[in-house]
Amino acid sequence: MASEDTNRQHLYRIAARILVVDDEPRLAGALASLLRSYGYDVTEAHSGRHACKLADTVHFDLALLDLRMPDVDGFAVMAHLESQQPECGVVVISGESSFTAVSRALRRGALDYIRKPFDPEELIATVKGVVDKQSLIKAHENIQARLETSEALHRYIVNSSPDIVFMLDADGHFCFINSKIESLLGYTPDELCGKHFRHILDDRDVAKGIYALNAPDISADNPRTMEIRLKTRGSRRATRHFEITAFPIAPQSWTHNSSTRGGGSGHSACYYGIARDVTERKEAEAFINFQAYHDLLTRLPNRALFKDRLELAITHGRRQKQKLAVMFLDLDRFKVINDTLGHAMGDQLLQAVTQRLETCLRKGDTLSRFGGDEFTLLLPSIHGKEDASQIARKLIKTLKAPFLLGEHEVFVGVSIGIAIYPEAGNSMDQLIQNADIAMYHVKARGKDNYCFFSESMSVDSTYRLNLERDLRLALEREELRVFYQPQVCASTNRIVGLEALVRWQHPERGLLYPRDFLGLAEETGLIGLVSEQVLDQACMEVSQWIRSGHPDLRLAVNLSPVEVDHPRFVETLMDRVKANRFPAGNLEIEITENVIMNDLEQISQKLRELANIGIRIAIDDFGTGYSSLNYLHRLPIHTLKVDQSFVKAIRSSADDACIVNAIVAMAHGLKLEIIAEGVETDKQLEYLRTLGCHQVQGFFYGPAQPATDIAKLLKKTKATLRCPIDLETTPAKIVRHS
Question: What are the GGDEF domain coordinates in residue numbering (predicted)?
C-alpha cells in the first residue's frame, strides 16, 4: 500500500506544473532545481512582468512568488493570476516579514507564506501540502460537476425525450409527466398532475385503457403495450394515436423521495410508462391502404377494389335472386385531347369527367377507374335492362357539355358496354369481359352510345383471340414479309431510298396488310417482336443491295409510338443495326409529330443519340399533328414527309395545294429534305417538281413490292423509274394503304 501511495504521489508530482517567480535569477534557479529534484515541472520567471506573460499562455497548478520585484510586484502578479488562472494556488516566498505584508498576502489569496531564507525541507513539505490540497479540491469539484452533469443529463433525457414519459399512482392519477406532453397534446405537466389518466383518453378508448392497466399479468418483465387515442387540449378535441408501454414499478427500485423537474415529484408512483406518438405511421398505413384500393388521380376505387365489390354483389345477387349490371365505359376522343394538350390537361379532364359521372350514381353503386381512360361501373340490385339503360343515358348526357381546360374548350363522349347478371355471365371475369366486348361494338358503330352484350358479339372476340394466336405463331414461323416502296428523286427519277412496309403471309387468309394486324400487335405487346423481325429482314436485304453497287441507298422504317416510348429504345435499335452490320448512315427512322410531343425532352435525347451515330430522322405524316413547330429547330431532324392527304389536294389550281406549298417552303427554309407521299398522277409529280420537292413516293411508281421485284428494279441502269403501271386501268386493282 505504501508503495502504491508513493507511486501515486510521484505521478502527481510529475503532473504538477509550478511557476517560480523571483527577480534574483540565482535564487529562482536554486528553488527551481530543488523542486525539479522532487519531480515537479518547473518554469522560472525572473520578473513580475515575465510571470504575467507566462500566465497568459501556460497553465500552472502552483506559483511560488516573491513580493518585492522592481517592475511588477508580487501582489500584481497574484491579481493577474486570479483573473487568468483562478484555480492556480499561490505560495509567497519573501524576505518581507512584517505582519502587514503577510496579512495582505493571505487576504489576496495566498495559501501559505514562507520567509527567506527558507528551509528546503519546510518548503518541500509546504509545496506538497498545497499540491495535495489542490488535488483534493479539484477532485471534489470534478465529482460535483459529474453529479450535476449526470442530473442535468437525466433531466434533459426525460424532458427532451421524443416520447411522453409519465408515472401513475395506484389509482391511476398522474404523479409525474414530462414536458413533452405540452408539445404533443397541448397540456402543461402541472395541470395534469393529480388528474386521472382517463382525462386525456379518447372516449372510445377509456375502457380499453383502464382494463390494460388493471390486467392481472402486467409486470415489470411483462409490460402492457397497446395503441390508444389521446385527446389534444382544445375545444375540438382532436385525437392523436399513441403506442403506450406501461408496467408496475418495483418498490425496491424507487425510493419515492427523488425530486424531479417537470410535472410532479414522482412521489407514490406505482406505474411507469412511455407514450410514443404514432399518428404519422397510422396515417401512412391508412394512405397505403387507400392507395392499394384506389386510383390516386381520380380518388375512385381501382380495379382490385371494384372486383372485390363485384364478387360480393354477385354472391348477394345469387342469394337474393336479383340482377346486377356491369358497365364498361371508354372515353371517346380522349387520346386526341391528351396528345394535343399534354398529359397534365389529360389528367385534369379525367378528374372533371369523374366528378360528372359521380353525379349520376345511386347510393351503393361503385364507379372505378379501370385504367387509362377506361371506367367500370357496378349497379347492384337492378330490376332489369331499363334500369341500366336509364343510368347509361344519364352518363352519356352528363358528358355532352364541353369541358374547360385552361383556355381550351374540349368535348368528349363515352362508349358504354353493359353486361347483365346472370344473362351475360355468372362470374366476375365473364361480366367484365362481356361488358368490354359490348363497349367495343359501340366504338365500331360510331361511339358515344351504349349497348348490351349479346352472344353474337362473342364471335368477333373469338376472331381477335384466334388472330392473336396466329400472330404469335407467325412470329415463330417467320411468316412476316417486308415489301418496299421506292422513294424516287423528283428530278432524276432515280431510286434514292426504300420504305420498308410489313406484310403477313397468312397460311389460310392470304396476304394481310398492316391495318389487319398491327393494332392487335400493339394491344397485345407483340409490336416489339414484329418490328424486330421486320428490321432484321430489311437490314439484311437492303445491305446486300448497298454492297452490290448502290452505296447511297437509304432504308426508311416506320416505328410504333410504343417502341419509341420504351426506355431501351435507343439501345435496342443500335443493337439490331450492329447485329445486321447495317451502315447507320443509310438508315432513316420515321416517327410522327405526336410521338415527339408526348415527351419532348425525353424524345429529344433519344433522337440526338441516334443522330450522333449517323441515323437520319424523318417526321412522317407532317402537318397532320397538333403540335408547336418549335421542335423543328430543337431536334436533329433531316426529312419532312408530306402526308398523302395534302398531295391529293393538288388538282387544277394552286389554291388546292396551299398546304403543300407551305410545307415545302418551310422545309427549304430549314434546309430539310422533303418527301411527298401518295403521288399518283403526272400533274401531282410535275407540281411537286416545280415547287422543288426533293423526293416522291406513291402509286405513280407502283405499290410496295417484295424484295425480288425491287432487286430487279435496282439492276436496271442507274436505277431509273418511269411510271410502271397504267393508271387509267389499274387503280381499282391496287390496295392503297401501307
Answer: 322-455
Residues 6+ apart with CB under 8 A from 78: 65, 90, 105, 108, 109, 110
Q: Which amino acid is at 260?
A: T
Domain residue spans in the chain? Answer: 2-140, 161-283, 294-455, 466-721
Taking CA atoms, 251 is separated from 196, 267, 271, 357, 511, in Å, by 22, 12, 11, 67, 94
CA-closest candidate to residue 67, choices 100, 103, 105, 124? 105
- The pLDDT, as a whole number, for residue 341 is 83
Q: May I ask the CATH architecture of the domain 161-283?
A: 2-Layer Sandwich (3.30)
Concatenated DSSP letters for 503-567? EEEETTTEEE-HHHHHHHHHHHT-HHHHHHHHHHHHHHHHHHHHHTT-TT-EEEEE--HHHHHST
Spatial separation of the C-alpha atoms in residues 365 and 368, rounded to whole Å:
10
Pairing state of beta strands 639-642 and 616-622?
parallel
Asked if the domains 294-455 and 466-721 are classified in one and the same CATH topology, the answer is no
Of 325, 392, 395, 328, give the one whose Cα is nearest residue 357: 395
Residue 702 neighbours by CB under 8 Å, 6+ apart: 486, 724, 725
Furthest CA-CA distance within the chain: 146
CATH for 2-140, options being 3.30.160.250, 3.40.50.2300, 3.40.50.720, 3.10.129.10: 3.40.50.2300
Q: Are 194 and 178 in contact (CB under 8 A)?
A: no
- Contact present, 597 and 627 (Cβ < 8 Å): yes
What's the pLDDT tens digit per position in 363-413? 899 999 998 899 999 999 899 899 999 999 999 999 999 999 888 888 888
- pTM for the full model? 0.45
CATH code for the part of the protein at 466-721: 3.20.20.450
117 preceded by cis ω (within 30°)? yes
- Domain 294-455 sits in which CATH superfamily? Reverse transcriptase/Diguanylate cyclase domain (3.30.70.270)
Let me know the angle formed at the C-alpha of 74 by 71 and 80, rounded to the nearest 5 degrees: 90
Q: Provide the grid cell at 674.
A: 422533303
Which ranges of 359-478 would DSSP assign to H, the alpha helix? 385-398, 428-444, 457-477
Q: What nine digits make up the cell of 117?
A: 531564507
